[in-house]
């Protein structure tokens, strides 16, 4: 059985009719005090006096701003099947009062048991009710509460962790299945046609002040802003990496003589556009589909050489001279940009005593 959300801080009315206020520090004290060696809280049906029979046990407790979460252990398979079928849709916590003589740890609210509640009172009147046991002094018992608000808050916190630390960390801290279980519990408690006597709603006095609500809303907006900022930064970093890879590809084509330098910016822009969205542009059908950038790179890689840099460099090294090479370019009505690139590369190669191809790459 998954962890159980059994209680939350605030002012609550016990089954006895008395009101009790539980702060987050009270619930923290309950978590710290809980020791199965002193008293292991059982999972029971209803609120029996002697906590019998036990359908399982509470292995440990944890606390958060939303309340107490109990981790069950040794759950009876038959009972777990009944719970999964919806026979017990409501949950209830029972505590020993700090002043109770039976309290294993006097001074704190110690968990006595976790009760699973069944159907509502029947519509047929006059039937003798089933008597489980008399009430026990010093014990405070509470009914269930909704999980919709809890699921919403945990979902927002999980989304923030995903944006800030990544999905793997979020799954370790706040697993998605736990939030889904809270949301499912909320849906199960939605109004349904019933032949049972309707239970009058219990109004709970809110202990949250308007300024606290405003502060929580402001904090929520701040967290949403951080998530959005992180997402934008991640997208920018991804696009920058893609852009640099496209620059390197275009420079490689130019250095091989397959692409003129003046055409490199256009090619880079087209490749960037094809991968600018979260889902890159694709072409083809079925298993033949592939990214547009893959097809473009294949086309440009198969182009014949426009400039034979190796041949020009060889002539320079064997005394051909830049004047002769320039004349060869001019005689062929070469593009002025290509001629200028050749002249600059020739001068740089001679100045630094480096290969002609390296000079071209540096100038590009």
Short description:
The protein has twelve helices and eleven strands. The chain is α+β, with helices and mostly antiparallel strands and 364 residues long. The protein has three domains: 1-120 and 127-145, no CATH class; 233-301, no CATH class; 309-363, no CATH class.
What is the number of domains? 3
User: How helical, in percent, are the residues?
Assistant: 40-55%
Q: What is the general shape?
A: elongated
Return residue spans where pLDDT drops below 50 for at least 5 consecutive residues. Answer: 120-136, 189-199, 312-321
Series of secondary-structure elements, N-terminal to C-terminal:
EEEHEEEHEEEHHHHHEEHHHHH
Report the biggest beta sheet as strand number plus sense, adding barrel if it closes: 7 strands, mixed
In the sheet with the most strands, the strands line up as 1-6-5-4-8-7-9
Strand content: 5-15%
User: Please, what is the average pLDDT?
Assistant: 75
Q: Which structural class do the helices and strands define?
A: alpha+beta
Question: What's the assembly state of these chains?
Answer: single chain
* Rg calculated over all Cα atoms: 37 Å
Distance between the termini: 65 Å
Number of helices: 12
Protein name: Peptidase
């Amino acid at each position: 059985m998954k962890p159980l959300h059994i209680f939350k801080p605030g002012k609550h009315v016990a089954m006895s009719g008395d009101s009790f206020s539980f702060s987050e520090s009270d619930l923290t004290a309950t978590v710290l005090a809980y020791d199965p060696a002193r008293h292991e809280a059982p999972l029971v049906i209803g609120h029996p006096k002697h906590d019998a029979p036990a359908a399982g046990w509470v292995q440990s407790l944890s606390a958060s701003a939303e309340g107490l979460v109990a981790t069950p252990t040794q759950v009876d398979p038959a009972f777990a099947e009944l719970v999964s079928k919806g026979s017990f849709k409501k949950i209830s916590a029972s505590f020993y009062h700090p002043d109770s003589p039976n309290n294993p740890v006097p001074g704190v609210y110690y968990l006595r048991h976790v009760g699973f509640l069944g159907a509502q009172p029947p519509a047929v009147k006059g039937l003798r009710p089933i008597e489980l046991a008399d009430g026990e002094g010093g014990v405070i018992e509470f009914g269930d509460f909704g999980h919709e608000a809890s699921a919403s808050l945990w979902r927002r916190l999980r989304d923030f962790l995903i944006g800030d630390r990544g999905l793997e960390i979020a799954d370790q801290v706040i697993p998605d299945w736990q939030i889904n279980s809270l949301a499912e519990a909320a849906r199960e408690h939605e109004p349904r046609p019933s032949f049972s006597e309707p239970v009058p709603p219990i109004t709970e006095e809110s202990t949250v002040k308007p300024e606290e609500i405003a502060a929580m809303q402001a904090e929520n907006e701040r967290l949403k802003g951080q998530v959005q900022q992180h997402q934008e930064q991640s997208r920018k970093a991804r696009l920058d990496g893609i852009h640099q890879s496209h620059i390197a590809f275009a420079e490689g084509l130019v250095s091989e003589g397959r692409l003129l330098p003046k055409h490199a910016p256009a090619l880079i822009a087209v490749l960037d556009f094809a991968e600018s969205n979260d889902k890159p542009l694709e072409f083809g059908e079925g298993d033949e589909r592939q990214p547009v950038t893959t097809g473009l790179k294949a086309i440009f890689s198969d182009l014949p050489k426009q400039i034979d840099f190796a041949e020009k460099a060889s002539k320079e090294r064997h005394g051909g001279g830049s004047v002769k090479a320039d004349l060869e370019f001019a005689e062929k009505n070469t593009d002025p940009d290509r001629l200028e690139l050749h002249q600059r590369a020739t001068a740089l190669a001679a100045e630094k005593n480096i290969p002609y191809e390296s000079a071209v790459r540096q100038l590009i």
